[in-house]
Amino acid sequence: MDFLDLPPLNGAHGTVKLPGSKSISNRVLLLSALAQGTTLVKDLLDSDDTQVMLAALTQLGVQWTRQGDTQDYSIEGVAGAFPVKQATLFLGNAGTAFRSLTAALALSDGDYTLSGVARMHERPIGDLVDALRQMGAQIDYLGTPGYPPLHIRPAQPHAVGEISVRGDVSSQFLTGLLLSAPLTGRALTVRVAGELISKPYIEITLNLMRRYGVLVERTDWSSFNLAAGQVYRSPAEIYVEGDASSASYFLAAGAIGGGPVRVEGVGSASIQGDIRFAEALQLMGAQVEMGDNWVSVSSSVRLHGIDADFNHIPDAAMTIAVAALFAEGSTTLRNIGSWRVKETDRIHAMATELRKVGATVEEGADSLRVTPPAQLQAATIDTYDDHRMAMCFSLVALGGVGIRINDPQCVNKTFPGYFDVFAQITQAVPVIAIDGPSASGKGTVAGRVAEALGFHYLDSGALYRLTALAAARHSVALEDEAALAALALNLNVAFAADKICLESEDVSDALRTEAVGNAASIIAALPAVRAALLARQHAFRQAPGLVTDGRDMGSVVFPDAVTKVFLTASAEARAERRYKQLKEKGFSANLENLLDELRERDARDAARSVAPLQQGADASLLDTTHLSIDQAVNAVLGEYKAKQIA
Ligand code: DC
């Protein structure tokens, strides 16, 4: 799938059971593999990054089995030594897998090559390699020095009491070192040079090492001591918490879209730093409640901008950058320099995409300042092969604008199925689509239904008629598809309550003539014209809802419409209605001619190859031949309300 269109959303509420944490999953997989004994890992995350780790472990000779189709995995530990001594590992764009395996393999006695996707080869690893070399690791760069791919030869371990590693580029370097340090059996002190970023991720590492029987003493955040002779022992069974970073999108949805939105799988007992994302939402004015294993967010007032340091929650902070679009005033995210070396340069990517929806963004070396626009704009969002860009920007649709997410499958890195879950807790701006042939009365019925519900109304036929009228006025031939499409794209129209203006002139009556209707029917068969009018039609979908009539409202333009009606009447009844209408407006008309023209137009609208006039399988038939307008309106309202209750 190249893109995914998210409809404008009215609000969010519901409950989400979170998928397993990526950070915990990949650490637990490696620890279970390195431990003595078998570990049953429960609720492992099912995603690209964990698949990468599992595949790498298989290549290294680690035996594991999945329990049926659950997310529970049984891992046979290899007690510190991978059985396979020579392997070529491809690790995609999984930073956690790449860094921790580099450290573990560099301290083993095998010959390994590690590579990833192009972006992985742009993500620095030199600081980790330097630290491992201090311990006797033999590592060569196969491409650019300081970056993957790497070639690892058997280590020549020598007694070294202390090593140092930089902490200000990626905390994964320190995590990798700490995870692999017990493999040497020696005592070790790791000193951190520079300020350690993303400290909560180190907490996860230390916490999990402890669960596997290895204690690390830390002094502040600058020095970590490991006593000699510690080995990893399986805890027999371990649960993976829900992913706190993934929780951020739903919690933010609760703060932006009213809520309450409740996530289950993380809470106050979580070992993940990103749980503190909830505090940031609270600072912005949202209401947060938390139990051991759940968090719930709601908001009854508009959020307000904040100025804060996000070094401790770099991943979840991306969600704040998007939530900032819904806040009063500007929001400044500070100390987020690590964004530059993640799946993409996230500072630049975030700034670029936020601007597309109308925000004013100041991009600093390690900061971002976001000022929301008065009105968010519909936009097509590029995702840079970065799962978090895709997930963050889904939230923009809560501003009541349609958002197209390019390459949405990038969410598989950590959250396959994200968009389905997001759809379950959000309410799309409802559309009632009434399709049917000419003069069936669908326009009158649709207008009345819109009025009854306080919804917006779109007469899509008017757009085709307007294009036909504009063509006549600019002498564009009805066969000139490209020129007609250009006209349709650039129509200068204004829809007011009681009139439609083309280039500032009231054309309400001119549009209704049979000549314009016939010309509209001819150009409506041209695919380029239909495509050109699509975005214009989507723009009518605004809170609290839309009622629209046409030929393909339910089938093509708004396929997710909540209520789809195919409204028709016999050709004779329709000809008679049109005849009366024309007479009332003082036009001359001939019933026989009208009937012939209607039949001809029906045939053309039904026979065309694009969006032909027909009752969709999911549309209900409403034959109004013997119904009054009131009866038809009530039938549609009844159908819509029945859906609301269901
Ligand atoms: O509903 P109407 O008569 O105003 O529509 C004018 C023409 O535009 C009709 O002949 C077919 C075309 N049309 C269409 O193809 N698709 C729509 N959604 C609406 C109208």
List the helices and strands and how they pair.
Elements: E1 3-6, E2 9-17, H1 22-34, E3 38-42, H2 48-59, E4 64-66, E5 73-76, E6 86-90, H3 95-106, E7 111-115, H4 126-134, E8 138-141, E9 150-153, E10 162-166, H5 171-180, E11 188-193, H6 199-211, E12 216-219, E13 223-226, E14 237-239, H7 244-256, E15 258-264, H8 277-283, E16 287-291, E17 294-298, E18 303-304, E19 307-309, H9 314-323, E20 327-328, E21 331-334, H10 346-356, E22 360-363, E23 368-371, E24 379-381, H11 387-394, E25 403-406, H12 418-425, E26 426-428, E27 431-435, H13 442-453, E28 456-459, H14 460-473, H15 481-489, E29 493-495, E30 500-502, E31 505-506, H16 508-511, H17 514-523, H18 527-538, E32 546-550, H19 553-557, E33 563-568, H20 571-584, H21 591-607, E34 620-623, H22 629-645
Parallel strand pairs: 2-15, 3-14, 6-7, 10-11, 18-20, 19-21, 24-25, 27-32, 27-33, 28-32, 33-34
Antiparallel strand pairs: 1-25, 2-26, 3-5, 4-5, 7-9, 8-9, 11-13, 12-13, 15-17, 16-17, 21-23, 22-23, 29-30, 30-31
Helix pairs in contact: 1-2, 1-3, 1-6, 3-5, 4-5, 5-6, 7-9, 9-11, 13-22, 14-17, 15-18, 20-21
2'-deoxycytidine-5'-monophosphate is lined by residues 438, 460-461, 464-465, 517, 520-521, 524, 550-553, 601, 605.
Describe it for me?
This protein is α/β, with parallel strands linked by helices. The protein has three domains: 3-18 and 242-427, UDP-n-acetylglucosamine1-carboxyvinyl-transferase, Chain; 22-239, Enolpyruvate transferase domain (UDP-n-acetylglucosamine1-carboxyvinyl-transferase, Chain, Alpha-beta prism), CATH 3.65.10.10; 431-645, Rossmann fold (3-Layer(aba) Sandwich), CATH 3.40.50. It has 22 helices and 34 strands. Helix 3 packs parallel to helix 5 (171-180), helix 4 packs parallel to helix 5 and helix 13 crosses helix 22 (629-645). The two termini are 31 Å apart. Bound molecules: 2'-deoxycytidine-5'-monophosphate (DC).
